[in-house]
Amino acid sequence: MKIGIPKEIKNNENRVGMTPAGVFELTKRNHTVYVQATAGEGSGFFDKDYKEVGATILPTINDVYDQSEMIVKVKEPIAEEYPLIKENQVVFTYFHFASSEPLTKAMIASKAICIAYETVEDEEGTLPLLTPMSEVAGRMSVQQGAKYLEKPIKGRGILLGGVPGVKPGKVLVLGAGVVGVQAAKMAAGLGAHVTIMDINMKRLRYVNDVLPNHVVTDFSSEYSIRKHIKDHDLIIGGVLLKGGKAPKLITRDMLKEMRPGTVIVDVAVDQGGCFETTRATTHEDPTYIIDDVVHYCVANMPGAVPYTSTIALTNVTLSYILKLADLGWEKACEKDKSLAKGLNIVKGKIVYEELEGIFD
């Protein structure tokens, strides 16, 4: 198969769809891999690295799309890429269709085969291709939140870990999934007081078992959220509905109940966000303020640490990419039910149940 790896063109997206190590696994099986020139530089992988493992370097993104049967990316195609996608071409990437009607309609019109990383689901019900980026984003949410709590950037002026004689900051984490657990782990490591909320008691029991005693759990409800937001300094939204839009757990009126300089980080922004006031931002301009509350809603947080993120992503996507390349998408999805759940749009039709009728 001919596999193309284009350069990501979303704002400040420095990740790349595959490491040279991943490319080597494809070329040694006699697949052809086209890599756009400089595609890996942001992640610390250079054209010579790809050439050494048998890739062909092409000068433009148009060349990569034109010559490839399957495109392997990181982020969803943006408007400039829509016309490049061909009928029957396999596109394997994060799509998050539920948060973008234009993207969904463009991919339907393209009649391509759209396989979304975020809906590939294993037998245990986990999302193996979303997990590593959720781990990165969960850890980064605390790192970024701690920074934006600083007074020069309009935060409350709080050091999360405190110092002797001064109590630590308080972090509220909404969702006890991968993002939430990683965020709680990082915040606890800094010495902050952490409250993590969920409606799944199994997850709360897990958190209670594996995290230190200064991470406390609470069953999530609007009442309890309204209570906690009044005295927490950093609020992290990490909820997920598989393939669907995130629920709005914090509404506009709740901002007035928060203290000025509170920071909220919405890790669910790719799926529409779990705060009513969320709008996607970029690493170039990551924050905005509403009612004296600092919002950090960068839609590609792991793109800021591309070396770590690209390796972590290739670690989990490669086995599926090899199946798609070796067998073709139809046989691969027939043999691997986890991969089949990644099928979202096929030849102009929505085939993922959670998306059906979402934009009617």
UniProtKB/TrEMBL annotation:
GO terms for molecular function: alanine dehydrogenase activity. It catalyses: L-alanine + NAD(+) + H2O = pyruvate + NH4(+) + NADH + H(+). Residues 4-137 form the Alanine dehydrogenase/pyridine nucleotide transhydrogenase N-terminal domain. The keyword Oxidoreductase applies. It comes from the Bacteria. Residues 149-297 form the Alanine dehydrogenase/pyridine nucleotide transhydrogenase NAD(H)-binding domain. Keywords: NAD, Oxidoreductase. Its EC number is 1.4.1.1. The keyword Flavoprotein does not apply. Pfam families: AlaDh_PNT_C (PF01262), AlaDh_PNT_N (PF05222). InterPro entries: Ala_DH, Ala_DH/PNT_CS2, AlaDH/PNT_N, AlaDH/PNT_NAD(H)-bd, NAD(P)-bd_dom_sf. Belongs to the AlaDH/PNT family. This is Alanine dehydrogenase. It comes from Polaribacter marinivivus.
